[in-house]
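To whoever is on call:

I kicked off a structure prediction for a single chain this morning and the downstream step that reads the tokens threw a length-mismatch warning. I double-checked the sequence; it's 362 residues and nothing unusual in it as far as I can see. Pasting both halves so you can look.
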Amino acid sequence: AEIYGQSDAQRKKTAQRIEQAFHKVKGIVDIDTSIETESPRKVFVVDRAKAATLGVSQADIALAIQTALKGNDISYLHNSSNKYSVPIRLEIPANRQNDLQTLLSVPIQSVSGELVALGEVVHIEQRNWEDTIYHKDLLPVTFVTADMSGYQDSPLYGMFELVDEIESNTQIEQNFINNPDFVTHSMLKWDGEWQITYETFRDMGIAYAIGLILIYLLIVAQFNSYFVPLIIMAPIPLTIIGVMPGHWLAGSQFTATSMIGMIALAGIIVRNSILLVDFISVQVAEGIALKTAVIDSAKVRAKPIILTGVAAMMGAFFILDDPIFNGLAVSLISGILVSTLLTLIVIPVLYFWYLSRFRQNN
């Protein structure tokens, strides 16, 4: 969950409320946010007026603190036994560097040559380290992240439960697709697994639609008809009758590879329909009665159609246990099984109805 808001405090408060909602949904684990725990620090603040009065510059103060904590080479020791000079380092012992009183007692030489204790020109303030500011599309954002555990391995199930939980308990606006361009109030944008899934299935759906259009145009060119391709493509929706129950029976999730299987099924099923329609057209052109031609088409073409379907199903069995291509295998096996059997019934009946009505009108 990406949290957008006008101020850091607003985003932090909203993110904490969203984090609480995450904890209420069963199965959501590894919940975390980009909110950083407050980390205190002590800051040496220079009293500029007093430092100027005592003749101590800010550069000298900074050098004194650096010398005390990190050390400073003030000179070098040269001797005849060593060709390299040895640095003489001035610093506070490591075991006393955390002692503020020791640091504040470090002497600084003023312009007049007098020694001034560091504590006379600085005071210590308690502050927090600045939090990391995350940006996305030039907008500051706070992240709330989590994962899904248990039998519902896809984070989408948990996300949609969260959507209902947030809607019922808060007034936060939720966005699923587009990132906000300008933020005037608290807003939540779902990203991560949801964004990947949405983009994948959106692109797959577009590819599926383009494939259906191209198939339709090819069949129009083959049969010189705008209605016959609709009959031939009628079994394509029938694949859903096999694919969805097939996933349920196999206990498999519908994934992107499942969608790829449905796209492939469109071509396989259309081929079977073309075989039946073409056989009927040839028989009718030879003077055989329409009813006889329709019945013969199912009888003659059933065997090759079933054999090709069984061959495709057997090939899919080899990837059935693959964790990535399991959805593809389930789609092919269940879709081909159901749609092949229905094609042998639906296509002859629809084409018989079409030709009978066409002949009556002409």
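Update from on-call: the warning came from a stale cache, not from the record. Cleared it. Sanity check on the structure: The radius of gyration is 38 Å.
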